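Worked problem 6 (solution included).
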Amino acid sequence: MTAGPRLSLPLALFAVAACRGPLLSYDDEASDGDSHASGSTDETGEDPDPFGCEPWPEPPRGLGMGTTTALSFTDVTTEVGLLDTAYYPGDWPPGCDPEGSGTVGVPCKMELQGGGAAVGDFDEDGWPDIYLTRLGGRDLLFRNLLGEGGGAPAFEELGLERGLVDEFGGNGAAWVDVDGDDDLDLYVTSFDAPGRFWFYRNELRETGVASFVEEAEARGLALDDGLPHFGFSIAVGDYDRDGWLDLYTSEWRPGSAPTLDTNHARLLHNLGPEQPGAFEDTTTAAGASMLMINPAGVHAFAPSFVDLNEDGWPDLAVVSDNGTSRLFWNLGDGSFADGTPKAGVSLERNGMGSAFGDFDGDGHLDWYVSAIFSPDDELECGNPVCGKGGNRLYRSEGPGCFEELGAARQLEVGGWGWGVAMWDPDNDGDLDIVETNGFQVPHGPPGLFFVNNPLRFWRNGSELLGESDFAERSAAVGLLDSGQGRGLVTLDYDRDGDEDLLVVDNSGMFGTGTKLWRNESGDDNAWLDVELDGRAGNRHGVGARIELTREPGGPTQVRVIGVGSHFLGHGEYRAHFGLGPSEAPVAQLRVIWPSGQVSVLSDLDPRQVIELEAR
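Solution. The predicted structure is:
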């Protein structure tokens, strides 16, 4: 087993680091991006549209790289040592046991929605490790052992050994270097008791051992206000472009919860060099509050910092339940404006998970939102916004607007969707979509039973059709799962150049827990991975846009480092590109750093990891 060849390129040394070809260009001046005044209105008193919807220039087209690639997966969960991962290993709370009796309360509904995963190399040995959140048992930290060459099992659980708290009901998680010391810390949201979130500082730089110390309270990350917590996913990004990573925590806060005039869906600003890794709450001041969008409560599931209008400033996209998803445009002055209606998004009735990627190869990020599809016109859930709905695919049409194509691209029907990702498991150069699903409310109405629904894998049909229509192929490729899937992360756990799949099943004490599928596609198609080493406050280059052009004058693939939280899932800070069957060098790789600097490389050999350092 090998991690593959790696090419490390500090920018200051490009003159002597050949990399088969020269550096085409390097712009050492940081771009400030476009800046827009906040809080202004036009003469009608309405908020203006700061971006409009001028169509993007027509780019070179031509998705896919030639032939339809054989694709298959094998469930290797037990083989690799991901053992005893049941989401709720103890007895279910009263009213929650699917086999029991009684009335379902708010706590039970929350627990049935949980189960997350975060992937990152916390000990910096070059191999991705896995953190799993659970209820009814402690969270789990699995260290990847493949770098030691010992063979199976591939993972060893050592959460307690490395200083992680025993039991606290974790839910969302993200590996993130908040203090700029170049090792990955861990931030975890939670359900209710003990009524706070958790932050673990990695001591690798200080002690040489990747162990953890809990410091959420001291850093302003606990959000401990004496109220019950219903935390979900975490977004990571530098929204004010000060060079330090900020956070956004989401919360699904039910209407029956006490004190609806507050919530824990918060925008947390990193105080930067004066107090590295300490945070202040800027939610209201920055115009990013989810309060009062729906008087029934805040229902945010999956936030992401992502630059969707390509002005250089990370926008905030929040997928939210009950018709409340929001797209907050970044105005470039530390504030946001709600641009949801004019952008043509939030058309799903029950937004759950979120993924960003350029599915049609036009060079612009599109937005996929998982939701609920029922064959009946209305779900019997006692809520007027529940209904048929289905998944939504928002295709970027211009800097400020989207066209919804979910049904047109055969993506609408996905059951009760949760975690989702756009990925390229067959390395053919276009993005496919994978989605978990399922829901079962004990003693609830029939419309709330989504049991034994299969995981969905939609393969992008661009190779055969010349356009991005999708076909559901989960059974055909071996992704056989009909459990209660929630969190989902794609990763290359064995570093063989193709992406594997991790899914958290929250079926409870009798469920199988987390599942890992190994990609068995082989070496038919080439690939290229990119890792970035950024500046002090953003060592992993979170938010950097990477553009790969396979052939001169051809279409461009786009990836953004750290853009997605999916749903309770947070992946590696690494960009993966499928290159198709050709072994010819990659014509161009262009990196737009969060600072606005641009690096361009040419003539790169495939099947390697490019490590690029900022000055």
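Discussion: DSSP finds six helices and 40 strands in the chain.
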